[in-house]
Amino acid sequence: MGEQLYPVAKAYLREPVAESLADVQRDLAELGLELKVFDGYRPYEVTERIWETYHNPDFLADPAEGSRHNRGCAVDVTLVDSASGEELPMPTGYDDFTEKAGHGYEDLPEEAKNNRDLLRDVMESHGFEALPTEWWHYDYVGWEQFEIMDLPLDGIPQTA
Length: 160
Description:
By secondary structure, the chain is α+β, with helices and mostly antiparallel strands. It has a single domain, classed as Muramoyl-pentapeptide Carboxypeptidase, domain 2 (2-Layer Sandwich). It contains three helices and four strands. The protein has helices spanning 15-29, 44-54, 110-124, and strands at 33-39, 74-81, 128-130, 137-140. It has a four-stranded antiparallel sheet, with helices on one face. It is globular and about 40 Å long. The chain starts with 14 loop residues before the first helix and ends in a 20-residue tail after the last strand.
């Protein structure tokens, strides 16, 4: 977007989503890896701003329906080497809206495909579903039970 969308550098999720993500983190720690979270809960007004700019239903949620991010049930993540703090090679950079970002895209270096597949395997083993067009985006299974929210990020109280 070329602009700051959030007033604070924090990611929030619904409690059961955050608990499942913590389980992912524990599994990755055994491999010397950890998650880097790019995005979690997204205020509805931010979804509207992004949609106005890109208006691409293959990669973005139509605000008329709301998104899983608006429900606090989607998370955008990548893998990081715990020792170096460096992100692992992935198919594309974050928020790359090309076919190369899709889970089915195969014309990639083996390392990037293996990392993408590892991320998907560990996320899905803890109750997340991959968005087919974005290697970084995962929806919590059962997201439908949560309502759309439009809370300001700088007004959400932090819990443990």
